[in-house]
C-alpha cells in the first residue's frame, strides 16, 4: 500500500510488470513496464510519490514516478538477485537486499551505491 493508503502496488512476477491499483475502487491506475525479468518486490516511498521495484532475474531495480508511471532511474550493480527494496523515510536513500546476503544502500537521486552491508 502507498503510505496514504489510496493505492496498492502489485507484481505479477512472470509478466515483468508492476501494477498500481486504486485501493478503494480496485481500478488499475498504471501498468509499469521495463523490467527484463521477474519482478518480486515493490515499495512506495514514504510520501507515496515514488515506487521502487526489484527484479530478481536481472539484479536491477527501478525507481518510478508513482503518479505518471515514468521510470525515473534503473539501478544496477548488484552481484546477485535483488529480493527486496525499501526507501528511507526522507527519500534520499534506497536499500536493496540481495540473494547473496548483502544489503546495498543507494543514493536515490544519483543511483550511486553508498554502502554494502555484508
Keyword list:
single chain; 118 residues; mainly beta; Methylamine Dehydrogenase, Chain H; four-stranded antiparallel beta sheet; 11 strands; 52% strand
Could you describe the 3D structure shown?
- By secondary structure, this protein is mainly beta.
- It has one domain: YVTN repeat-like/Quinoprotein amine dehydrogenase (Methylamine Dehydrogenase, Chain H, 7 Propeller).
- The protein has no helices and 11 strands.
- Strands 4-5-6-7 form a 4-stranded antiparallel β-sheet, with no helix packed on it. Strands 8-9-10-11 form a 4-stranded antiparallel β-sheet, with no helix packed on it.
- The model has no long low-confidence stretch (mean pLDDT 90).
- This is WD40 repeat-like protein.
- WD repeats lie at residues 1-31, 32-74, 75-116.
- InterPro entries: WD40/YVTN_repeat-like_dom_sf (IPR015943), WD40_PAC1 (IPR020472), WD40_repeat_CS (IPR019775), WD40_repeat_dom_sf (IPR036322), WD40_rpt (IPR001680).
Order of secondary-structure elements: EEEEEEEEEEE
Give, in spatial order, the strands making up the sheet with the most strands.
Answer: 4-5-6-7
Distance between the termini: 29 Å
What is the rounded Rg? 13 Å
- CATH domain class: Mainly Beta
Shape summary:
globular
Uncertain residue ranges: none
| Helix coverage percent | under 10%
Helix-strand category: mainly beta
